[in-house]
Give the backbone structure.
Amino acid sequence: MRESYLLALCLTLGGALAAISLLFVRRERALRRRLTRDELTGLLSQQELHRRARAWLGKPQGAARQGAFFLISFEHYAQISAMLRAGEDQALLVLVADRLSLITRTLGGMAARTGTDAFTVCVPEVDEQGAAQVSAKLLEDLSAPYDLGGRPLIAVFRIGAALYPEHGRSVEELQRCVQVALVPLKERGGPGWNLFDFRLLARQRDQQGLENDLRLALTTPAMEQFELYYQPVCDSGTGVVQGCEALLRWHHPELGSVSPAVTIELAERSGLIVPLGAWILERACSQAALWPSAWRVHVNLSVKQMNEDGLVQLVTDVLASTRLAPRKLVLEITESIFILHYERHVKILNTLRDKGIGVALDDFGCGYSSLNHLRHLPIDWVKIDRSFISALESDAGSREVVSALFGLCQAMHLPVVAEGVETEGQREILKSLGCRVMQGFLLGRPAPASEIQALASAVS
Ligand code: C2E
Ligand code: MG
Ligand code: MG
């Protein structure tokens, strides 16, 4: 009796011990998984990818002769996720990760999630040509539409690639190289891939110098290195000028003319856009005050300027000091300003509109855009991005998109400006779609204030 009792006790204790040790094993496994895997996507964590890559790079010479790192950046993920329903943003990342792991598995490589919207892939035994093939494959497969509850979504990816051992001999070096390789793609916009090049590092160092030069240029009292060019915005039928867009030009003392895309990006990154933007607004308004009363002046506003507290006051003061009628000013913004502080920015724009100032949504259709979103935005104009216009003659798909966009804007009583019109063919197609206002080299290139003033004098 006593023996059978002891036996039962032992069995129970043994069972409990087994259960406890099983629990520990499971806990440890979960913990290890959490350290080595990204919880959401199941891809490797950054630490684990680096650990495994180190082991791979550390192999004796000859074992791992070559290899490549790829940094995959999911462009505009924050903007896209802001427009998705709850949970869909995460589901989208999982779909992307599933595709990535499938591709890397077939290539014998490994993939990790290394940021909210960034992934790193590491593939052994790959040379320059192989890196090009892997990048092209990654871009092709990741760019195919994603199905989110029956709604197709197209995402834009950019890939920076670097080779072991040519570009870096350690994981840290390779990780830095792939980041640098992404920079030219960001400047160019759109999807694509780029292989690291040591000249990019030198350029990055130069940019530090360029930022310094910009800072210096802003301290010169007459701001003589800066100039505003103006590009006419015209009636599509008659060609009559309705206004002009102010476009910044920076005449660097040694480098000559610096591209506005570079200047504005640099100014935004460094925060210098705030004083520079204030100068642009003041200069544009004082020059526009001399134009015919029917002409408006379009001034581009950057996100950083929208985030500044004193924007409404600045615009009010500038209009007062230059004596420009508020209805003659159109502020051009891009959709990106609505990603953060949506309500605050809507309020600011409505305050400005209440004063009679116009607001145009610039570069519409470029990158991410939401047609549903459009109806809620405090805007008076929509400017369709040049990328759609340039494809009008060759691509029926672009024609359909532009046609749908015109239909939608007409239904919302939102006037549309077509940007970047270069050919008669584009003008005719746009006119047939009901486009009344255009801007582009066909109608007039950006020109210095004096040339625009001569045109203005001829009109008035
Ligand atoms: P944006 O505001 O969309 O300005 C239109 C750009 O398209 C200008 O480039 C203009 O020269 C170019 N463009 C106009 N028509 C044509 C055409 O028919 N064909 C081609 N290929 N290009 C055309 P730009 O002057 O290089 O300016 C580039 C961007 O830099 C502007 O795009 C704007 O986003 C920014 N930017 C320029 N000036 C300012 C400024 O004063 N403030 C701010 N915040 N951004 C500015
Ligand atoms: Mg613009
Ligand atoms: Mg534009």
